[in-house]
Every structure is written in structure tokens, then in C-alpha cells.
């Protein structure tokens, strides 16, 4: 809803600003981690396929943090199933690293609190710290490893009245990763200072809208904040954008629906896919209009999700 775009500390993944998200149910990751003295190295399987050295090394770096915390030297097998298109701007890293943190916590019986899990997940992917919790969540940037963490925003379950329709423009891996795009923008964009000077006011507006259960106020600030974030990429050196022609078509269609009297607002993360924030009661009307321009298989409706959940498996039964 209010974007995280820029790191103050790259090693600890401490952001330049606080951010705010809504955890959803439709896109998620299931992960199982097994530590064993029989393993000679870490292994990483995603959707049944063993991953290459680069992907495995990223997972191993996170496992090293866990091993240090647990005073453990065992290698691990990580098996993940992504119900999110990977690296397509649909928060697969947030989902994946939150699941990995939770699975490591279970595998090594670390008994970490939700706040401690949030801080651990942040070290793998900044946005993952918010995915530990359900509903509306704020990532408090903090100033160090102990204070940069996510906290739930109480809304008296108002989020259960909302929906998010995903217009899947492109589920392929994007050319500029979120991490690289963020770094390039912070270091070179002439527009970045303007983004940073206004984002705290956006956050205050969003939190006030949640407290007041004011859907239109929340939608308006979320849409404006997304456009500002994407605007910073156009002034980077070299410039880039995550938008495609169909992204623009989707945004214009959402504006058209809103002009007909149906309240809805768009937002986008670091990718071409457009998300439409609306109220549950308006989903059928909005979907009917979207289907005039986009095929049904490119549309997914999501609702508020529960955050990290521990699943029973044959192993831990």
C-alpha cells in the first residue's frame, strides 16, 4: 500500500522509510527445511526443481544467519513450492523468505517470537518481515537490526471487507530485479528525494484511513504512492520502467471503472502487474469490466490473508 523503495543499510536490509502492506491469501509459499548431519552441502529445490548455484547461495546465506543464531553447523535441504510467479513483481521474495524463516524456526526449534521472526525474515528480503503477520502491517524502519521490524495494524477486521484483484500482465522474470532497481534509483534518480520527502505523509494518510475505515482515502493514497514510486525509476541513470503497454491499459481501465461510480484503485509493485484494490461487494462488477479487456485466466481475486502458518506434515506429526 505504501511502498518500500530504497535501503539505508544494504547489509542489514534497513529501509529508507516505513512502509505498509496488506497480506493476501491467494499467493503464498510452502517451505520445508530439514537440517541433517548426513548432508554435505545445502540444497534448494523450488517447485521440485533443484536450483542453480546462484539461487542456492542466496538461500545458504540466510541459512548461515539461522545457523549462527542456533549455534548449529548442520547443512540443510530446503524444499519450496511457490504459489506466486517468481520475480514477476508479485512479492514472491516476501512470501518465500517469510516461509523460509518460519520453516527454519520450526526445524531448529528456535521458538522465536513473531517480532523476532519478522527481523529474521527481513535479513532475507525486506518485504518478508511484513509477511509474517496477517492483515494490515507496517514495517517500522528502525535504526538497527534489533529495531527494524514489522508490526500489525489493528483495524477491527476491516480488511476482511476488502479485496485485491490481480491483473497478471506478465508472469515472467523481470529484466531489472527489485533489488537492482531500488539500488539504481536511490543512487541516481533525480526524483528520489521527492519520493522520500513525501512518503511519510502518505503513510500517515493511509494509517488514518485504516483507523477511520475510509476506503476511498486509503485507495487514493495507495494509488498516488505507487505512481510516485514508479516515477522515480524514469529519472534513474540509466532510466528504466516496470510498466508495459498493458500495464497502462489496466491503469486506465481502473480509472474508467472509478469514473462510472464504482470505487476502486490500482497499485503496482516492482513489476508490470496491476493490482486493483476494491471492496468485496464490488468484485463482481469490477471483474465483469476487466474481463472485457483481459482474459479470465489473467485475473485473480485475493482477500486478506493470515500471514505465517505452520502446516502439519508427516515428518512433524
TrEMBL record:
Residues 1-150 form the Diphosphomevalonate decarboxylase-like N-terminal domain. Pfam families: MDD_C, MVD-like_N. One of its GO terms (biological process) is isopentenyl diphosphate biosynthetic process, mevalonate pathway. InterPro entries: GHMP_kinase_C_sf (IPR036554), Mev_decarb (IPR005935), Mev_diP_decarb (IPR029765), MVD-like_N (IPR053859), Mvd1_C (IPR041431), Ribosomal_Su5_D2-typ_SF (IPR020568), Ribsml_uS5_D2-typ_fold_subgr (IPR014721). Residues 166-298 form the Mvd1 C-terminal domain. Its EC number is 4.1.1.33. One of its GO terms (molecular function) is diphosphomevalonate decarboxylase activity. It is an enzyme of class 4 (lyase). One of its GO terms (cellular component) is cytosol. Keywords: ATP-binding, Lipid biosynthesis, Lipid metabolism, Lyase, Nucleotide-binding. Belongs to the diphosphomevalonate decarboxylase family. This is diphosphomevalonate decarboxylase.
Amino acid at each position: 500500500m505504501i511502498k518500500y523503495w530504497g535501503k539505508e543499510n544494504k547489509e542489514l536490509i534497513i529501509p529508507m522509510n516505513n512502509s505498509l502492506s496488506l497480506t493476501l491469501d491467494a499467493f503464498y509459499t510452502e517451505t520445508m527445511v530439514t537440517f541433517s548431519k548426513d548432508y554435505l552441502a545445502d540444497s534448494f529445490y523450488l517447485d521440485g526443481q533443484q536450483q542453480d548455484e546462484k539461487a542456492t547461495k542466496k538461500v545458504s546465506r540466510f541459512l548461515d544467519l539461522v545457523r549462527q543464531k542456533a549455534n548449529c553447523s548442520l547443512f540443510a535441504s530446503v524444499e519450496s513450492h511457490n504459489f506466486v510467479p517468481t520475480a514477476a513483481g508479485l512479492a514472491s521474495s516476501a512470501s518465500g523468505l517469510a516461509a523460509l524463516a518460519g520453516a527454519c524456526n520450526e526445524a531448529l526449534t528456535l521458538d522465536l517470537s513473531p517480532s523476532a521472526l519478522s527481523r529474521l525474515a527481513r535479513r532475507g528480503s525486506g518485504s518478508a518481515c511484513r509477511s509474517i503477520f496477517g492483515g494490515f502491517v507496517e514495517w517500522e524502519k528502525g535504526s538497527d537490526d534489533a529495531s527494524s521490524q514489522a508490526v500489525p495494524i489493528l483495524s477491527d477486521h476491516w480488511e476482511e471487507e476488502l479485496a485485491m484483484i490481480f491483473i497478471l500482465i506478465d508472469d515472467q522474470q523481470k529484466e531489472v530485479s527489485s533489488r537492482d532497481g531500488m539500488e539504481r534509483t536511490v543512487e541516481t534518480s533525480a526524483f528520489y528525494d521527492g519520493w522520500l520527502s513525501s512518503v511519510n505523509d502518505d503513510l500517515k494518510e493511509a494509517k488514518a484511513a485504516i483507523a477511520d475505515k475510509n476506503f476511498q482515502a486509503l485507495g487514493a493514497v495507495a494509488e498516488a504512492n505507487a505512481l510516485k514510486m514508479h516515477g522515480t525509476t524514469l529519472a534513474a541513470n540509466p532510466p528504466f520502467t516496470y510498466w508495459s503497454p498493458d500495464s497502462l491499459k489496466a491503469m486506465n481501465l481502473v480509472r474508467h471503472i472509478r469514473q462510472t461510480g464504482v470505487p476502486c484503485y490500482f497499485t503496482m509493485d516492482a513489476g508490470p502487474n496491476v493490482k486493483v484494490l476494491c471492496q468485496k461487494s464490488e468484485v463482481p462488477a469490477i471483474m465483469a469490466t476487466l474481463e472485457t479487456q483481459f482474459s479470465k485466466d489473467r485475473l485473480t481475486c485475493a482477500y486478506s490473508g493470515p500471514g505465517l502458518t505452520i502446516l502439519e506434515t508427516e515428518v512433524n506429526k
